[in-house]
Amino acid sequence: MKAIAGDAFMDWIDAAAVVGLWEVVKRYRYFRKQFGETLREIATTKPDAVVLIDYPGFNLRLARILRRRSPSLKIIYYISPQIWAWNRGRIRQMARYLDLMLCIFPFEAELYNATGLRTVFVGHPMIENLAKRRTGEARDPNLIGLFPGSRLREVKKILPVLLESAREINALRPGIRFEIAAASDALADEIENILRNFSLRERVRVVTGDSPGTMQRAFAGIVASGTATLESAYFRMPFVLVYKVSWPTYLAARLMIRTRFLGMPNVLADREVVPEFLQYEARPKAIGESVLRLMNDSPRRQQMIAEFDAIIAKLGETGASEKAARAIVSELGQQSDADRIR
Question: Which of 232, 241, 264, 226 is nearest to 108 (CA)?
């Protein structure tokens, strides 16, 4: 997108990366401003199609208003919102204002097509991106990767739990080292601040912008829920999943979410391949013991890795971006044919 738009590219993704109900409420005026500016930009440029990518709280509202204002506009959604996890009834509503859904998980296409929302499974773009990041490095049997998330609030909430888990692991197996994956320089600075008073600081290394490298070096990992769970599965790193949010957000999520699991590897497998430690269950002692089992129990490790291979195979091969582009061009072609008929 940056390569095509050049100086006209408007990037507010970092400011928009908030998690939780209260966090969104606090930024409401900001999001309302961005929403208005987006509508004005679309009205000015008068595109033939709009491609909405992920970010459902914003984009589904945008799609609904665009359909009302421009009935002939092609509205295409790329990377399905995980509405199947919390409110499947809304899928039929979405079919009224979306022309095409491009999804990255195979079960989504079956679900959406069954409700009348025309959907194409294009595969997961992660596959082609991560395939280029393979290093062939040997795993370090004394290295554990820590992945606290890609948002500031996630890091502040989850990293202390990961560090306490690291302390528990060190008490049972002295000599273990830890590598923390920081998604950006700003998050690396925050991580360093949190580490300032950590008693095992000399055993911890912070690496910025190289999560795939850490996933290939580490013998096991502790991973915050999110895209990193699928990335870890792709690189065959045995891990446990940890996630914590504010209590209001957690209670609201418990009322809404209808899936048995949070981590996508488990959702895709429909069973708990990866141990999940969520909210009050995210206790450092239990997390540490689970990680050490993955390090010490070879059959358990190999079973998890075999499960990972089966899960990743479901995501398709490389070429997801090209398939998505071809589907979009095809949709525009259908519009052109309709215009000629009229």
Answer: 264
Mean pLDDT of 25-37: 81
**Which among 57, 99, 152, 21 has a CA at the least distance from the CA of 330?**
99
Nearest CA-CA partner of 243 in 305, 209, 208, 287: 287
Burial class (CB in 10 A: 0-12, 13-18, 19+), 98: buried
Q: How many CB atoms lie within 10 A of CB 215?
A: 27
Per-residue tokens: 25: 């409420």
Averaged pLDDT, 195-206:
94
Q: Which of 47, 130, 66, 85 is nearest to 328 (CA)?
A: 47
Q: Which tokens is 43 given?
A: 């009205």
DSSP label at residue 184: S
Structure tokens given for 174: 């002295």
The residue-averaged pLDDT of 176-190 equals 95
Q: Where are the beta strands (DSSP E) in the chain?
A: 49-53, 74-78, 100-103, 119-121, 140-147, 177-182, 204-208, 218-224, 239-243, 276-278
Cβ–Cβ contacts within 10 Å for residue 275, how many? 19
Q: What is the DSSP letter of 278?
A: E
Q: What local confidence, expressed as pLDDT, does residue 19 receive?
A: 57
Percent of the chain exceeding pLDDT 90 equals 63
**What Cα–Cα distance (Å) separates residue 233 from each residue in 7, 104, 226, 286?**
37, 16, 12, 21
For the entire predicted model, the pTM comes to 0.82
Residue 274 · residue 265 · CB < 8 Å: yes
pLDDT one-digit tens code per residue, 84-102: 666 666 777 888 899 999 9
Q: Which of 177, 181, 236, 174 is nearest to 203 (CA)?
A: 177
